[in-house]
Amino acid sequence: MEGDGRGTLAGLGDHVRGRVVGLWVANPSDRRLLSEFLEGLALKVRDLYLDGPHAEDGRPLSLILADAPGGRRGRERIRCLKEQAEPLYLPALLFLPHVGPAEPWLRAGFDDVVRIPVSKAELRARVGAHLRLRERTEALALSEGRYRQLVENALVGIWQANATGRLVFINQALSRMSGYAQEEVIGRHMAEFIPSELRSWLDERMRLRLSGLLEPDVVEVEMVRKDGSRFTALAAPGALFDGEGRVAGFLGAMIDITERKRLEEDLEAFVYSVSHDLRAPLRAMEGFSQALMEDFAEILPSQGMDYARRMRDAARRMEVLIQDLLAYSRLSRKQIRLRPVDLGRVLEEVLDQLDEEIQRRGAEVSVRGPLPMVRGHHTTLVQVLANLITNAMTFVSAGTKPRVTIRAQDADERIRIWVEDNGIGIPSEHRQRIFRIFERLHGIEAYPGTGVGLAIVKKGVERLGGQVGVESEEGKGSRFWVELSIADWGDQN
Q1: 48 Cβ contact partners less than 8 Å away, ≥ 6 residues apart
Q2: Residues 381 and 341: beta-carbon distance below 8 Å
Q3: Please, which pLDDT band fits residue 433 given cuts at 50, 70 and 90?
Q4: How many separate domains does the chain show?
């Protein structure tokens, strides 16, 4: 070795100190010189002629240096050491005279050829470069190990497929969920694990995903276990991209919600049963009180008529409350698939539904400008806007003609729908409270209602992935807003 060999391996840091370099060098004098040089770089040296591949403290080899005579005798030994180190990179460098080809040695498993004589500066650079590669493979192996442990120990099922839809990986949770061993599904198409009636739906979603028209989303899908039984999964699939931005495959996570769906069905049946049991006596109360007022009006004193009227009105309010609670319950549980929705058509349906009430209240409802397409659910949006407009017509001062304006505006790749009124307004401290269920700011004598309408609005908007809020000053009207995503045409399928 020629030149000045002083100095450590610059740029690698203190964590390189003490790394183990194995020497497979035939000449004792060369071994001694190399050992002194490497130890001067704060590295440990092991003589592979005499010792095993590990240092006394158990640290593995990070680099092998061999000369041609030693390499000739130790090629099989070095190959075994490199195989034992896998998947980590264990670089093996060969000292070779300037005469003689390098290719046979590289084919034999050596990673680099150092022509001798070599300067200490060049050798230090070569050693440093390969130790950097070793360091990177260690970091990569650690990261991959953590990732694999996270994926394999996850409570949710995780899968990966190539661009044609064939599975390349499922984790243990999905294996338990489906009843298939991991090796049983690799190479098989995703369509094999869903009912046949859903396969065209999957094909269309894959086509849209490959063309970039379908963003990551969450869907309910029915799956088929190995034993043929079915379960319902809540799945969150998405695309994997290569370095050029093209779809290279698919990745997703899912949970089994079969039990949750069963409980929801049981709860829905219970709610309807209870509501039926409650509504039957309410109808009797309303019917008998109405009969009292009609058939015995001449003999009932005024106080008796007042009592009968109060019973009838209370029964009607309870009927409306039960209907609102059923609507809130259904909205919380029902499956909603988001699609492009025409807000103009939604509003037409709402105004048609509310026409009688608008006429009765003498309200003026106007639409300012065209209404755009949004990502939503038609029926839910009808319910949301109907409740907001009804709310706007209800909370006005006595003797004031209700005026309601509906308009839409762009809001950073989203659409904000405004419902503005000339009502009594809302104190600032109550603007969040009004969206809670059963919250009322005024007595039922002043303003009728159940305290559920705005809670339904909030729940509906949340189910659509949007937000709702209000801007208001007491005595100066209110401006309710609903913010939704712009229509994604990939949602049509």
Answers
A1: 22, 23, 24, 64, 74, 77, 81
A2: yes
A3: confident
A4: 4
